[in-house]
Structures are given as structure tokens and as C-alpha cells.
Amino acid sequence: MSEREKQIAENLVDAFAKLPDSKKEFLLDNASMETCGAIFADPARKVSSNYGIGSDRRIALYVDEANRSWCTSNAANDHRAITIEVTNNGGAWDWPVSDKAYAALLDLLTDICRRNPGIGRLRWKGGKGLIGQVQQQNMTEHRWFAAKACPGNYLYYLHSQIAAEVNSRLEGEGDMVDIDKLIDEMTNEQAYRIVAKSELHCRTIPEPEWSKEEGHWAKATANGTVDGTSPECYMKRD
Fold first, then answer.
1. Taking the CA of residue 134 as centre, how many other CA atoms within 13 Å lie in the half-sphere pointing to its CB?
2. pLDDT digit string (tens) for 174-183?
3. Contact 18, 151 (CB under 8 A)
4. Quick one: which of 4, 35, 63, 104 could link to 57 by a disulfide (CB 3.0–4.6 Å)?
């Protein structure tokens, strides 16, 4: 794993923004992904993001996740962040986004988390003082690093809802596994490998205190029920 991949695993940063230029000379309302890309391609702008989301639900990748974007006015944050720009469709004061853009944002975040398992679940407490404490909060804002309104209050006040929805999707993926079907389709060799692997683990588990005190293991050995060989190790489990 590269250093950049480690940083991504440690912290997912949703730097939702409203697509201003770097000097805030003008605001791009409902900007297309092509327009946003053209701005990012201009080296004089010194601005970019990993992803952009349009009001039409299209998602654009501008800077590969393995590389740093110039998004949050903070080099350290950008280096460990996967940054996202979302086009607004209403302007000041709260900079709302379209329903399609919001849906695409949820899809993108779910996909990012799925492909970067080190992120785990999204964590949001709305605390600037928690920057870098990714076990408590792994989402940050552009406004925390510069005198910006980004991402605008519309998305800012939806962050708890965004985290909850994405986490619900990720947690729900585990429910998709049909255990009965998995067992039915498993070959005998595959089942044996699972038993063998679990037996290796069981050998590392000491005899429970209750068994030592009551002498069940010693009695079983004395009576010839077990002789110290496998698979008696399973009996060590509480």
C-alpha cells in the first residue's frame, strides 16, 4: 500500500464546494462538468478536486484518488483527502444542490468507501477541533481551512444525513449474503478448509477457567473421551 493509499484509508474528506474560482471573482451556478474541468485544467487557477458532480447527476473524475487535489486551501488536508465539488443550482445564501446531484453524491461516497475499506464508515460530528481524529470524524469542510462558505449551508446541514445514508448502504451489503445458499454450493474441500482454519485458531485458545476449576477437561482425558489430539480443541470454547 502506498503512502497516499494509507492516507486515504485513514481519512475520507468530503470537501463539498459550490464551484467558485480560486479568487472568488465569480461563481459558476449550475456549472457543467466540462466547464469545471476546464477551470481545473488552467494552471493559473491553482484549484482542483478529485471529483465533480453536476446537477444532471453526472460524476467527473478530475484528479485520480492516488493524487492530491488543490481543493481545501490546506496541503495536509488535501494530501489525505478525497475531495468532491458539487455544483449548486440556486446560489446564495445556502447554495442548494439538485436532487440528482445529491443522489449522485450518495452513490459516489458509497463507492469510495467500498473501494477503500480502511475508511470504514463515515463519521461526522461537525467539529473543526476533530480534524485528523478520524476515528471520531473523517469528514471535513473547506470552510474550516479558509474564509469560505463552502460547502454552503444546504449541504453542510445535511452531513449527518449523508453519513447515515451511506453507512446504511454499506452495512446493508452484508445482508445480501445468502448463508444457506453459500453452504449448499460449498464443496466438501472448501468446508474442510474452513474447519481446518478454525481448528488452528482453537488451538490458541486456553482452557476456560470454569473448565479448570470443575475439572471437566481432566475428567474427559482420564475417561478416554479425549486424548490430546484434534478435534478436542473445540471443547475449549466457552
1. 17
2. 555 567 778 8
3. yes
4. 104
C-alpha grid cell, residue 99: 436532487
More confident residue, 175 or 165: 165
How many whole angstroms separate alpha carbon 79 and alpha carbon 67? 8
**By three-state DSSP, how is residue 199 classified?**
helix
Cβ partners under 8 Å of residue 235, min gap 6: 217, 220, 226
Cell reading at 197: 482454519
Spatial CA neighbour of 149 closest among 78, 102, 94? 94
CA end-to-end span of the chain: 38
Residues whose CB falls within 8 Å of the CB of residue 122, separated by 6 or more in sequence, listed in order: 12, 109, 113, 138, 139, 162, 163, 166, 167
Does an H or E element contain 84, and which?
Answer: strand 84-86
Query: Per residue in 11-69, pLDDT tens?
Result: 444 444 333 322 222 235 567 888 888 888 888 888 888 898 988 899 998 888 888 88
Cβ-contact 51, 108 below 8 angstroms? yes
Cα–Cα distance for residue pair 183/170, rounded to 1 Å: 23
- What DSSP state is assigned to residue 82? -
